[in-house]
Design a protein that fits this description.
With 155 residues, the chain is mainly α. Helix 2 crosses helix 3, helix 3 packs antiparallel against helix 4 and helix 5 crosses helix 7. The longest helix has 38 residues. It contains seven helices and no strands.
Length: 155
């Protein structure tokens, strides 16, 4: 089902199913009573994660389109954007995607909700069923790890 939702991308589908299993396991460990109807609940998790992946792909393609425009502007002599900075930005997008993918599932999901879905902390807390302090700490830890990983791309 996830392959169809991701339009045939098997690699992303496998990642989504793995992440959904981890997310479901985490929820079930925190809520021993479980859920009433497991299959629809699990499918909803997978479907939502597939939608997140498709949304992220669209943003990535929009960002790369913006970068291509920036590269064109950088080629103009009168432009204020230096070519080396435009190239660095072009390299930074995939590096950022890779760095976010390497975060632990709890940090990645919190970071994704905050910066990709642009949700406020109270909504993140509600969705992940965590305290506001925990949400802020996860974001702080994710940013710290990303900053260390992307230090070589300092702008």
């Amino acid at each position: 089902m996830s392959v169809r939702w991701l339009r045939g991308n098997r690699s992303d589908a496998e990642d989504v199913v793995s992440f959904a299993a981890l997310k479901a396991l985490d929820f079930l460990e925190r809520h021993p009573a479980g859920v009433q109807q497991f299959r629809p609940w699990a499918l909803r998790i997978v479907r939502n994660l597939c939608a997140d992946v498709r949304r992220q792909r669209m943003r990535r393609s929009e960002l790369s389109a913006d970068t291509e425009v920036s590269d064109e502007v950088a080629d103009r002599p009168s432009s204020e954007v230096a070519p080396d900075r435009a190239l660095l930005r072009h390299e930074l997008i995939p590096a950022l995607d890779d760095a976010v993918a390497e975060l632990s599932p709890s940090l990645r999901s919190t970071f994704h909700l905050r910066y990709f879905d642009d949700l406020p902390y109270d909504e993140i807390c509600r969705r992940l069923e965590i305290s506001p302090e925990n949400a802020r700490k996860r974001i702080e830890n994710a940013r710290k790890r990303l900053r260390l990983r992307l230090a070589s791309y300092a702008l």
